[in-house]
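anyone seen this seq b4? input:
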Amino acid sequence: MAIRPGRTTRRIERPYTRVSKKVPRKSYVVGVPFPKIHQFEMGTKGEYNLSLYVIAKQDVQIRDNALEAARVVAHKFLTKTLGKNYFFKILAFPHHVIRAKPIATGAGADRYSQGMRLAFGKPTGVAVQVWRGQRLMLLQISGENLRVGKEALKKAGLKLPTPIEIRAEKI
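predicted toks r here
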């Protein structure tokens, strides 16, 4: 089954937090999938004099595959232009579990879809819940590479479902 479009999970929702008093072992979400993003720090740690931050302009949920796509684009551009003279870090970690209730089509679909058993859906992925003004990514570079750093973060921001702001700070 293919992944659902990002617009279906963009809105921030309250997480499903079932608490069972009779059967406490059922008080957690079973089968949470691993996030697609595994590497959070890239480049080399060193003496850099400039920090660039990607900051979200809206409250939004960002799926793990969108974070991974942004990471890959920025990392590839930075290694091609700067080599290893940078430090790039993803600051947000996907904790929120996304669930989907399968929608049936065809003969007998009405009987299948009307049931309320496990109506909250099965875990299909994980996401980051981001608030307006929250920092998503950090890039440390030297001052003469400011243009290249902004270009890399702009390319990464195109993969995210929220408008971004790139803010520079001296270290």
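The chain is about 20% helix and 25% strand. The chain has one domain: 29-100+119-170. kinda curious what u guys think
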